[in-house]
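Same chain as my last thread, 88 residues:
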Amino acid sequence: MIDDDFDFKKSDRQMFDFSTKLWKMVTPYTENKEDVMMASAVLLKTAVQMYTVVMSDEDIAGLLSHEVCESIPELRSTLQKQLTRTVH
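reply #2:
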């Protein structure tokens, strides 16, 4: 159930701002495969640790095995578009 006072626009803006800050922080770790793998592993570990505060093990497993896995093609496509975008 969604809280009637929940502000989707504010939430979207917060997620965008957080994502922007996070990308600025991890960009130096995108120069080679080893750095990307290390940074990704740390971010994934941190995300799972944060989920354990508010979700059961079963809910976390479900999230990772369903929602996350199903979103991989869309995430890959979006990132590839960002990486190949040219500036005019």
